[in-house]
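#structure-requests
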Amino acid sequence: MNRFVKILYQAVEGKPEGSVRTLSFGSIGLFFCVAIGVLDYVQQMVASAYLLFGLSLVLLVILVFEYFGYRKYINTAIVISINSFLIAIVMAEGLATGSHYYLLSLLVALSFLLVDAAEDKRKVLGYFLIQVSSFCFCILDGRMVSSVQHINPELYHQKFVMNSICSVVLIAVFAYVGMYFERKVKEDLVVERNKALAQSKKIQEHNLYLREIAFMNAHTLRAPLTNILGLIKRIDIDNMPTEKDKKLQQYLKQSAEELDIAIHTIVAKTNEVEELFKED
């Protein structure tokens, strides 16, 4: 089971979280619809088989739209189409076959499918009300036996057993897949948190280096430069023996002052960067 879920997850990996859930649950539902439809056709329950094949086709179209990113009304389409077909199937088979139990399976799927839904709370509540109303409608208004197709009593028992088991299996699969997604979300959150902590540590280390550079510029380099500037001021330019010496003294003073300005600029820029990191 875990291997199957991993394969299913890898097939839709890279899609948004909501799309991954829809594609996964939809694929599982599509598989069950086709499988049960084939069994019904073999057992000559033609009306039920055609309804299941129709539901399979609708699910396939919905999944294609979901896969290519057209998901504005996907959840609404899923809830309305599946409930409509399941009600029709219950009416075509009768309550004695237990096909109404599949509505409960969809109720479980919705609890995981809509956990990250973008719809507002009222719309999500509406989905669940539709689901509960569909089940209640089938129980209260449905007939025990079919008036649409001939089903012998022995087949009713077989269908009831099969549908009961399949609906329980489907609920278990939906629950397992849902918990798998919840675990993946938590694992992804832990990974993102660790990345954020590592990035924060790098920023702190970078900030420390900036402080060290600022200290070196402000103190280690400025101290000897201040001494040089002080010595230059003590040199009496008028007592220079030659005009060349006077120019050299002027160049030396100019270079020292330019270096002083550069150090002030570096210190100011370093402080600005440090303030930016503090704000982040």
